[in-house]
Amino acid sequence: MSLFSEVPQAPPVAVFKLTADFREDSHPQKVNLGVGAYRTDDCQPWVLPVVKKVERLIVEDDSLNHEYLPILGLPEFRSAASKVALGDDSAAIKENRVGGVQALGGTGALRIGAEFLQRWYNGVKNTATPVYVSAPTWENHNGVFADAGFKDIRPYHYWDAAKRGLDLSGFLEDLEKAPEHSIFVLHACAHNPTGTDPTQEEWKTIAEVMKRRKLFVFFDSAYQGFASGSLDKDAWAIRFFVSEGFELFIAQSFSKNFGLYNERVGNLTVVAKDTENLTRILSQMEKIVRTTWSNPPSQGARIVSKTLNNPELFAEWKDNVKTMADRVLLMRDQLKTKLVALGTPGTWDHITQQIGMFSFTGLNRKLKTNTPAQKHTLQQNSSVIFQL
To answer: In degrees rounded to 5, what are phi and psi of residue 150?
Structure first.
C-alpha cells in the first residue's frame, strides 16, 4: 500500500478547470469567460508593443547574466514599482520609509505579507487576529491568509444586490464592529469580482473609521492603470491612506497592466512609520522569502523595471495600458446601449458605473423577458458582462 493512499483527491481550481474545458471544446464560436486576461477583438492574447520592445533590448544587452538576484529582488524594479503605486511626489518615499519585496505575482506578494503579519503583526504571533475580506472577493484571498496560519477570516459587507452597488453602510458598520488591529484586505481599484469601487468621498469616510478604530490596511492592487486608463486615478485610494499616516501593505501585480501573466511579476510595497521600522520589517521578510522561493526570477522584473525607469518607454507603456482600459470601457458602454435599445427589463446604469474586467449584472434565474430577442440577449450577456 502506498504511503499516500489516504490522500484525498482535491477538487480542481474552478477557473483553471474551465480553461482546460475550453481548450477541449471544439465549438467554433466558443468564448472563454473564465480567467481574467485581456483579449483582442479576435479573442487572442495581446503582447504589449512596449513589452516586445523591452524584451529585444534585454536580449541585446551583453551586460546581463543569469546570476542570482538579491533575496528581496531586483532593487530597481522594487523601487520603481513602489513609486508607481505611491506617486512621484510621495512624502513617504522621500522620508525613506517605503520598501519593496519582489514576489511571484500578486498572490506571492499577498502571501509574503500574510506570513509576516502572522508572525510579527502588533508584537505577537497572530493566528487569532481577525482578517476581513470583502463579500464577495477574489477566491484566493481566503486561501492565502488561511494557509499563512490565520484562523479567523471574516467577510465584510461590500456588494448591495438590491441597488447593484456598494453597501457602504454595511461596510462602515463592519469596520466599527471589528476588533481593534483587525486586518482588512481592500481592493485598490476595479474590485474583483463586482467591478464596484468606492468613490473618493467614500474612501475618505472608510479611512476615517479605519484610522479611528486602529485597523490595518492591506491593499490588493492588481489593476492599476488597467481600470480607468490612469495610473494616478487607480492609485488614489492607496495614496490617500498613505497621506493619512497609515502603516500599510500593498500587494502589486503586473500581470494585467503589463500582460505578463506567466512571468509572475509582483511586488509587496511596505509603507512603515520610519526608516528604522522599515529596515527591521524587510529583514524579517527576507527570511520568509529565503524559505519560500529563496530567490525571485529576473526576466519579468527586468521588463517592468526597464519600462518604468525609462521616460520614453514609460510613456509608451501608459499608452498601451490606456488602449486596453479604453476598450474595456467601450465594451461596457456598447453592452449597456444594446440592452437599453432592446428594452431589456431593469436598469443598466451599473454596467458603466462599474469598472475593470469584472461586473455583477443583477441578473437572476427569475428575471422575466418580454420578447424572444430580449431573452436571447440576456442569455448571451449574463455571463459576458460578468467578465469584460
So the answer is: -75, 130
Q: Which residue would you say has higher pLDDT here, 27 or 388?
A: 27
Report the chain's mean pLDDT, rounded to a whole number: 90
Question: Choosing from 256, 306, 336, 348, which is the catalytic residue?
Answer: 256
Q: Are strands 183-187 and 131-135 parallel, antiparallel or unpaired?
A: parallel
pLDDT at 375: 46
**Which three cell numbers, joined as nine digits, stand for 384?**
459576458
Distances (CA, A) of 370 to 6, 247, 339, 344, 347: 54, 54, 13, 8, 15
CA dihedral 331, 86, 210, 275 (to 10 degrees): 160
Catalytic residue among 138, 159, 317, 348: 138
Told to judge if 220 belongs to the known catalytic residues of this protein, a careful annotator would answer: yes
pLDDT band at 386 (very low <50, low <70, confident <90, very high): very low
Residue 292: name the closest of 112, 114, 143 by CA.
112
- Clarify whether 256 is annotated catalytic: yes
The length of the chain in residues reads 388
Does this model's pTM top 0.85? Answer: yes
- For residue 101, list its beta bridge partners: 268
368 is catalytic: no
- By CB neighbour count within 10 A (0-12 exposed, 13-18 middle, 19+ buried), where does 111 fall? buried
Helix (H) or strand (E) holding 321: helix 311-341
Phi, psi of 279 (to 5 degrees): -60, -45
* Integer Cα distance of 21 and 184 in angstroms: 35
Give the DSSP H or E segment for 134. Answer: strand 131-135
Can you tell me the distance from the alpha carbon of 69 to that of 91, in angstroms, rounded to the nearest whole number? 28
Catalytic residue among 167, 197, 220, 234: 220
Nearest to 283 by CA among 121, 99, 105: 99
Q: How far apart (Å, rounded) are the C-alpha atoms in residues 219 and 252?
A: 8
Cell triple for 221: 492592487
